[in-house]
Amino acid sequence: MTDYLKNNEPVEKIKEEYQSDLEQMKSYFVTYYEKVISDNTLNEVEKITDKTKLKACKDKLTTLLDKLNSEKDAVLSSEKFEELKTKIQDLIDKYSARIDAIEQAEKEAKDKLEQEAQTIIDEDKEKMEEVIEPENNSYTEESNTAAESTDTDSNYDSSDDDSDTPNDLVSITPFELPDDYIYTY
Q1: How many CA atoms lie less than 13 Å away from 102 in the CB half-sphere?
Q2: What is the pLDDT of residues 86-118, one digit of tens each?
Q3: How many of the other CB atoms lie within 10 Å of CB of 33?
Q4: Max Cα–Cα distance, the chain, nearest Å
Q5: Which residue would you say has higher pLDDT here, 153 or 72?
Q6: Is the dihedral of CA 28, 30, 36, 38 positive or negative?
Q7: Where does 6-77 have alpha helices with state H?
């Protein structure tokens, strides 16, 4: 059309045909842009929890924005370009903010679970230590009790006993178990 218009005597009918064809082609691209925007516009973004869906729409809109920037002079008026650019950028910003909110919530949930798990582990460890320590102490007490009973057993007078065993009893020396020794029943 530019070359044709350079001609000294352009025919008005041909000029109108060029204009019509150009407007039709531009309209095709604008329709395509608006369809991509429409297909990637999500309702109630603040309720969406699917990051993959949000990222996919955001990526498609980012690609469209790049394409729009490269084709703006050939296809769009400056007003239409600004309108589409603003609409796309607003959606990209919304999706980015929602993705960040979801990731923050996931991080907080993970941290909370890790903290709860650590608390349970610590509580269980304390309970185990409470159970193990008294058992260790009770074995020591039993050993002392056994030692005391051995002393009284050594005073046992077997003179009334009719058995063939010697009258002298052998005393048993008590021993203590180490604190970390664990009995199994």
Answers
A1: 17
A2: 999 999 999 999 999 999 999 999 999 999 989
A3: 22
A4: 151
A5: 72
A6: negative
A7: 12-39, 51-75
